[in-house]
Amino acid sequence: MIDLEPSNQTKLFGLDSHLLELIRLYKSNKYPNKLLLSGSKGIGKSTLAYHLINYVLSEEEDHKYDIKNFEINTESKTFKTILNKSNMNLITIDVNPDKKSIDITQIRELIINLNKSSLNDKPRFVLIDNIELLNVNSINALLKILEEPNQNIFFILINNNKKILPTLISRCINYKINLSNKECLEVSNQLLGEELYELINSDLINYYFTPGNIYYLIKFANQHNYNLLDLDLKKFLKIIINENHYKKDPFMKYMIFQFIEFYFRKLNFSFSKKINDRYSYFLKRISDTKNFNLDEESLFIEFEDEILNG
């Protein structure tokens, strides 16, 4: 499997027009210094941000960004220093693996770094991923530096279509990114280097899946030696629940809710009143479980007993 870490993605797929628009704004001095990139998780927002940053920072280099092919030059000094996290013109922030939120110490470190003098005259970028995971203290500290950012500093905030404070949105230009289902499948084929339907049972392909969702689904299956061609949606859900994968794998914990909703949508074609009633019931349970951090196990066991085995 290829590595889909956004900073490693030298080729941009499906988001060419978005990159061209952002470059046009930058060249015409209309690029906002506080940009909120919004869209579904796994659609390529962070990858787009890294391509824009590489374009701007490598502009005067011998191995600059290849705008004709929408590709980062791997010989670029900018690319190499971003990969080894030594680029003085880029600060990245994301939730730490052992944490549930971006905490105040990360924002305090950001403020200290921004107050240091730059060693060159290039723009400086601050890329904050999963902005919805900022806690209250972090948001308050971030708002202060967003109100009056230092000169030549550009913030790019990544939001996965989650609810964030209006005070944060109001300080940014909200740039929304969408891909149609057809575009998502085309990008997935390009990333994987082969046809998606040769790897995954068509029953598992959700119209709301992004290329990132599909990639991690295949990666998950490879890690556990599951043949996705042999598994329909019902069998797959049973495996995830019975093997407790949602407890061990953060990605599968995120995805199982989507799979359950997808399963009900497929059943809904029967227009059964019972199914519609249970759909509403489980949608509320899913919402409550997410919003109030409730125990997922009872929800999944009930779903399996009543729906999958019913």
Summarize the structure in words:
This protein is α/β, with parallel strands linked by helices. The chain is built from 13 helices and five strands. It has helices at 16-27, 45-57, 77-83, 104-114, 136-147, 166-169, 181-192, 211-223, 233-242, 245-248, 250-267, 273-291, 296-308; strands at residues 34-38, 90-93, 124-128, 153-159, 173-176. Strands 2-3-4-1-5 form a five-stranded parallel β-sheet, sandwiched between helices. Helix 4 runs parallel beside helix 5, helix 9 (233-242) packs antiparallel against helix 13 (296-308) and helix 12 packs antiparallel against helix 13. It is globular, with a radius of gyration of 21 Å. The chain starts with 15 loop residues before the first helix and ends with a helix. The model has no long low-confidence stretch (mean pLDDT 91).
Profile the largest sheet.
5 strands, parallel
Number of strands: 5
Please write the string of helix (H) and strand (E) elements.
Answer: HEHHEHEHEHEHHHHHHH
Apparent shape: globular
Low-confidence stretches: none
Our measurement of the CA-to-CA distance between the termini, rounded to an integer number of angstroms, reads 37 Å
Structural class: alpha/beta
Our Rg estimate from Cα atoms comes to 21 Å
**What's the arrangement of strands in the largest beta sheet?**
2-3-4-1-5
Helix content: 40-55%
Task: Provide the β-strand percentage band.
Answer: 5-15%
Whole-number average pLDDT? Answer: 91
Q: Please work out how many helical segments DSSP would assign.
A: 13
